[in-house]
Fold this protein.
Amino acid sequence: MDEILKEINEKIQALKSGSSRKNVGKIVALADGVARLDGLSQAMYNEMIAFKDGIFGIALNLGETEVGCIMLGDTSSLNEGDEGHTTGKLLSVPVGMNLLGRVVDVLGRPLDNKGDIEAKEYYPVEKIAPGILPRKSVNQPLQTGILEIDSMIPVGRGQRELIIGDRCTGKTSIALDTIINQARINKEGFASGNKDFRPVYSVYVAIGQKNANIARTIELLKKHDALQYTIIVAASASENAANLYIAPYAGCAMGEWFMHNGMDALIVYDDLSKHAAAYRQVSLLLKRPSGREAYPGDVFYLHSRLLERAARLNEENGNGSLTALPIIETQQGDVSAYIPTNVISITDGQIFLETDLFNQGVRPAISVGISVSRVGSSAQLKAFKQVAGKLKGEYAQYKELAAFAQFGSDLDARTKAIIDKGDRLVEVMKQKNNSPKAVEMEIAILWALMNGFFDDIKVNKISEAEASFEEFMKSKGGAVFEKILQQKKLDDDIEGQLKEICGQWKKTFA
Ligand code: ATP
Ligand code: MG
């Protein structure tokens, strides 16, 4: 008898005590990626709710009797009546260098069959944006490699520049060209061995795109050797709305890691129109009241809290930056719709693309008149400012006169000169996608244009001339390019050399 009692006592002693509070609820309704749960009285806003089979949801609606939860990933194995419990954790994703070169889902899980991602750190997907004090103003350029943008709508590190336009106007191409250009600069910078070189890493967030499109993007980046500096976060059109809603925040967390560690990063949200639509869907399923265009009332906050996380931090905070290029798709060029106006007001400028221009073959189809960069020009290279300073004004003047000149035949000499120059400017600005230019080349091209070296070339021969000029500069321009990059501004010496080389080139292109 004693034996038995002793044994029982020992067993009781060995029992592990200690409690963890777990609040358990039951699914009462589950459809379209949204679940309503009964009994989860202790859930926090944005808390991860765990279900069976490793499925997670996020508590978004905290009601008196019910909790509304958006479901991540595939929920086909879940049924009404299944249990879910609180985890005490906010949704987090892996961050760090190991994610570069990878394609991941919104939880940071690999989608590319390249094996597990080892992450030392995790960041919550929702984070309060840096306040005012740790920031500083944008003062370093971020070259897109697209001549028209770098000269007239320059982007700086830490800026938020919106790319906006109708379907199929080249929005994605501008963002991808920027990523490709940064990869090219990274490669050259690392090869140069310069200790002060600051690479730019990219995060591309694909929201609601077709899988085939995402695959094409991955191939393109691979082909240009840019994938190794890029993280791709994919939430394709086939996934439920909750994944699309989380995607940009997850990508942002990955980009923030670079910024917080003193590095520079670029993030592309392609695109936020689909993001807003996904959020609308989630909200309607959660039975939240809807407002203008059936979007919920907090749709402004949806994008402002995301874009405010892009920033330029000051020296005390590590000097890192996160530049954001959000993309918005408009319907018939209507920028005054709800989502476009919201995002325009949150960003530091917009690159506006037009279908008409695109169809006329003016590509990139940027409408210069209504495109602006409100902070980037203070980051523009001095040399660039010297050649491009008056460009936008001249362009505007040309547009005005060109529209007017259609009606009259005899023009005075001055008007004709402006129109002739403008015609050539438009031609020079045309640029194929996936062929970003180096900044020193952009400066040389503009210098040649502004100093009359293209004036006597027929308009329809300009692109040919530009290509030949680039070839010539690549073989003969090494010395002057180096000087431009070193001094960062043009002086008499450099301009003399440019003049000399341009003259030589002109003789070869007759
Ligand atoms: P969507 O609305 O489908 O997302 P989008 O506005 O993102 O389209 P892109 O996919 O970038 O547009 O480009 C549409 C097409 O135009 C592509 O086939 C692309 O190759 C072509 N294109 C884009 N930019 C240029 C360019 N500068 N020169 C020539 N072709 C271009
Ligand atoms: Mg696109």
About this structure: The first helix runs from residue 2 to 14. The chain has three domains: 24-89, 93-380, 387-509.
